[in-house]
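In keeping with the milestone schedule agreed at the kick-off meeting, the structural modelling team has produced records for the first pair of proteins. Each record is given below as a sequence line and a structure-token line. The laboratory manager (R.T.) confirmed that both were archived under the project's standard naming scheme.
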Amino acid sequence: MSERVVLAYSGGLDTSVAIPYLAEQTGGDVIAVAVDVGQGGEDLEEIRKRALACGAAEAVVVDAKEEFAADFCVPALQANALYMDRYPLLSSLSRPLIVKHLVAAAKRFGGTTVSHGCTGKGNDQVRFEAGLAALAPDLKIIAPARDFAWTRDKAIAFAEEKGLPIDVSAKSPYSIDQNLWGRAVETGFLEDIWNGPIEDVYDYTADPAEPREADEVVITFEAGVPVALDGRPLTPFQVVDELNRRAGAQGVGRIDMVEDRLVGIKSREVYEAPAAIALIAAHMELENVTVERDLARFKRSVDQRWGELVYDGLWFSPLKDALDAFIADAQRHVSGDVRMTLHGGRAVVTGRRSGSSLYSYDLATYDTGDAFDQSLAKGFVELWSLPSKIAAKRDREV
């Protein structure tokens, strides 16, 4: 049996050219695997046909939108995952899901090698290969753009030589990756970090400066999972999909930042994540209402480490698994409704309610009926301040 190479296939120039190129390099069959994680664009069937027309022995397309939302976006939401406190993990969430389907295809078709289109400069090569190392360590890996110095001009020339059925003339000035959870844009004039983004960079969000009526939405959570909008039961995919439209129409979720890449360089990225930013803001506020103080304080450090692990490609790591268990337990009481106003590029919480709330009106009020026994406060403050008082006295005497 000849060698079989399973290729992560997007339908674009680089991965289309990779099909005949990998066949030539390995002398084997290429199995193209395209995974729909809500990135939009072409129909999956058209992508499948193109892979076959480019010489793939088999072409598999997977509609993984619901899986991506429930098994990857929801955990990121429960972890309030914001890399460097700003970026809601877009590409790094989709890569482990794609890896799962690449491994499944390798098992199904007897694949011996997996290939991806990542360069040696980015984070995604690590995410693909660390995931493969965890799930299928016996598979070999080929990355043509990295391993064979496969540049875009070489890819175009090869496509023309082979007469491949793909457009090799049009080229966006940007490098774009998008999925259900958001959209990432880099390269082109954005590589000069003094240049501000222009409106044609954006697609998921409208100009937040344009005048429009505000949109009010009520998001319902059960154990940290979004389950309804405005009282309408929805799947996580439907929640994210609708909020991408509604929050995006209000310009919510634009992020322009210089971030620390895993490979050690800094990179300028422009992100759009309307649903992610709105949902994380709502979820954090519901946690403020339902999660006990010390648990909430500790969870913030867990959330940060969770986001770093996922960004660094360690979705299938023992530490990530352990943090998942902690976060899941911390979500037991994170149920209730959060009301938000979407307007002017912002998602602002205006109301919250929960049957698991730790907020007590009787204890918090300053009006008549206050149940807080203020007579206890004097002794509490004296005891709380005692270590500082003793240390200060010592320092004065030294």
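The second protein of the pair:
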Amino acid sequence: MRRTVFNEDHEAFRDTIRAFIEAEVVPVYDEWFAAGQAPREFYYKLGELGVFGINVPEEFGGAGLDTHKFEAVLYEETARAGVTFGGSGVHVLLALPYLKMLATDEQKKRYLEKFVSGEEMWALAMTEPGTGSDVAGMKTTAKLSEDGTHYVLNGAKTFITGGVHADRVIVCARTSAPREDDRRFGISLFAVDTKSEGYSIGRKLDKLGLRTSDTAELAFVDVKVPVEDLLGEENKGFGYLGHNLASERWGIAFGAYAQAKAAVRFAKQYVQERTVFGKPVAAFQNTKFELAACQAEVDAAEAVADRALEALDAGELTAAEAASAKLFTTEVAHRVIDKCLQLHGGYGFMNEYPIARLYADNRVNRIYGGTSEVMKMIIAKDMGL
């Protein structure tokens, strides 16, 4: 089927990214995998390539575009090569929307040029031990000092992707107690400098998948955050978080579809090369039927992911539509990648084969950004149930 979502500019970007991955990532990816993270210097290369600045205004060194289609190309090309770009995805997909939406002109001048170059990598710290999807239940606090010059931050966060290499982290914290009629009230967002006294990185978490992305626990003990680093208005943070959830869930949805598409590519290549009982695995009817069924599911997931992308770029992607896209494509990817691994036989269980890494990387898609069960709740509510 002919896709209409990408134009010549996107395809030129695809060629550039594909060449970059082959030259800069594939030769060293095993080292990243063993180390459990991409090296910090790699993010400077992404900055030089212009990856971080696509949606940043030109006055701050960006390209000044307003589209997620180049991010979509990145998802497809990294999946195609069986690699990831470390924890850099949160820098653009999660952190940038808050800076564009909430930062004052003064803040943008301080933050965005370094954001574009990779000099300052950003992460988002929302999840806490014991809260998970219940964001309103967070315990981290930020109390305004008596002289009104800074907030004092105390608390802990976990599962923070990009948390090891981050230079600034958007931290969600309680500046006021929740109201009886609104437990979401009282949360504020801060752009916290990770070099601040009292800020510490705990464990770099040992994950099942996404081994090259640094995911960490963070702790804050009397961290002084200047009032100039408050993002948006005090106590309105929950609403800001909800505003950007649609784009985050689209990103997970599109990434999952891209992984499923890559899995079919890996499996097709493997079964054509591997011989069993004197003939290629691809010659068996079961192989053909399994891959054909996988391809049909990928075609459907691509249509859903593309439709969500167009809606997101038009500013029309609703919470329920984003939830539906995420639920569908992540469940498709789960089924497709499992079948494609099975077609690899024992080699599919070996980390030296990209399908094994893809299998592990994919599993979190049905958990983070809101679990599949939460997606069903959102969709059911939208249905009036």
